Amino acid sequence: MTRIAVAGAGAFGTALAVALSGSPPEDCRVTLWGRDRAGMARLAATRETARLPGLRLPPALTVTADPEALAADVVLLAVPAQALRGFLAEHRAHLAQAMPVACCKGIDLTTLEGPTRLMAAALPRSRPAILTGPAFAADIARGLPTALVLACADETLGTGLQRLLSTPVLRLYRTADVVGAELGGALKNVIAIACGACIGGGLGESARAALLTRGFAEMRRLAIALGAEETTLMGLSGLGDLVLTATSEGSRNYRLGLALGRGEGFDPGVTVEGAATARAALALGGRLGIAMPVTAAVAGLVEGRLTLPEALRVLLDRPLRAEI
Ligand SMILES: NC(=O)C1=CN([C@@H]2O[C@H](COP(=O)(O)OP(=O)(O)OC[C@H]3O[C@@H](n4cnc5c(N)ncnc54)[C@H](OP(=O)(O)O)[C@@H]3O)[C@@H](O)[C@H]2O)C=CC1
Ligand SMILES: O=C(CO)COP(=O)(O)O
């Protein structure tokens, strides 16, 4: 019996827990853990959540706020990237024996580290993995076909996780390039905000294609400098997730961009990973001497330092150069 715990009962954690408990690939038991005791008691009773309207939790899925549930064999960490460090510090003891799998997309603003480095620092005996790629929680929860990538430096552990976490409709690919997988997922959110702002500001689909492509060049430059393999960025976590989130109103990052472009407000309670990650990526780029003009424009927009016309002018006034 393999015990899988999903930590974080938001949209993504709930969708993953539902997918895994609806069609257990092996002899395993799935538990969804959330920090909000009253909310988890309500979820256990109603089997419904406002984060995924229309979904009913399968009977096989256990729902709890008891942190003892985190002492499982495999724990999927589906809390936002900026909350991960605090979550790991708080629950280190429960997670000590678990195989942790990050399910978040971002770079920690304080340490400038990705999720797997945070996990390795907090849980030194673990071999961290990350599950990432192009899939909206709502699509996974509805059982639509999706593909993600499971990254783990240890190929044997990675192969085991790939098998354990795949379902007949959730197809996992595998890579040992943990850095590339986590940076692809983190950085695409920044470019999705840029693309949303472009459309929201009425700049047109041609401009969005240019931003998406030049933003992707920026993603690759930074990721490779940090040790990623280019092929990983060309895959599901990177190009695949960028195409999804930079073109769909299903993406919260894209919707924040739309709001910025239109000069509208945006609910600060919504998880939008690209806002903090833009600042973190810019800091990393500065440290490594890598030009990141699109990321700088997004950071300026999000922080209110730049208007959309000003951000556009900065991008267009850059010296003409070779396309690399
Ligand atoms: N939604 C999607 O389509 C996808 C999301 N992801 C990634 O998944 C991650 C989570 O996003 P998502 O589930 O959508 O976000 P949500 O906003 O839907 O949920 C976030 C969850 O994290 C919980 N949480 C926040 N801080 C902590 C903490 N310190 N300790 C414990 N729990 C905490 C929240 O609890 P509370 O409700 O109590 O605040 C909430 O349940 C993000 O990195 C996102 O990029 C990846 C692929 C798809
Ligand atoms: O990462 C996602 C899909 O792959 C979800 O994107 P948002 O966080 O922008 O909603």
TrEMBL record:
GO BP annotation list? carbohydrate metabolic process; glycerol-3-phosphate biosynthetic process; glycerol-3-phosphate catabolic process; glycerophospholipid metabolic process; phospholipid biosynthetic process
Question: What residues does substrate bind to?
Answer: K105, R252, N253
GO CC terms in record: cytosol
GO terms assigned for molecular function: glycerol-3-phosphate dehydrogenase (NAD+) activity; glycerol-3-phosphate dehydrogenase (NADP+) activity; NAD binding
Q: Which Pfam families match?
A: NAD_Gly3P_dh_C, NAD_Gly3P_dh_N
Q: Provide the reaction this enzyme catalyses.
A: sn-glycerol 3-phosphate + NAD(+) = dihydroxyacetone phosphate + NADH + H(+); sn-glycerol 3-phosphate + NADP(+) = dihydroxyacetone phosphate + NADPH + H(+)
- Which sites are catalytic? K188
In which compartments does the protein localize?
Cytoplasm
Q: Does the keyword Phosphoprotein apply?
A: no
Q: Please state every residue range assigned to the domain named Glycerol-3-phosphate dehydrogenase NAD-dependent C-terminal.
A: 177-312
Which residues are listed for NADPH binding in this entry? F12, R35, K105, A137, R252, E273
Q: What does this protein do?
A: Catalyzes the reduction of the glycolytic intermediate dihydroxyacetone phosphate (DHAP) to sn-glycerol 3-phosphate (G3P), the key precursor for phospholipid synthesis.
Q: Which PANTHER family match?
A: GLYCEROL-3-PHOSPHATE DEHYDROGENASE, GLYCEROL-3-PHOSPHATE DEHYDROGENASE [NAD(+)] 2, CHLOROPLASTIC
Name the protein family: Belongs to the NAD-dependent glycerol-3-phosphate dehydrogenase family.
Give the protein's recorded name.
Glycerol-3-phosphate dehydrogenase [NAD(P)+]
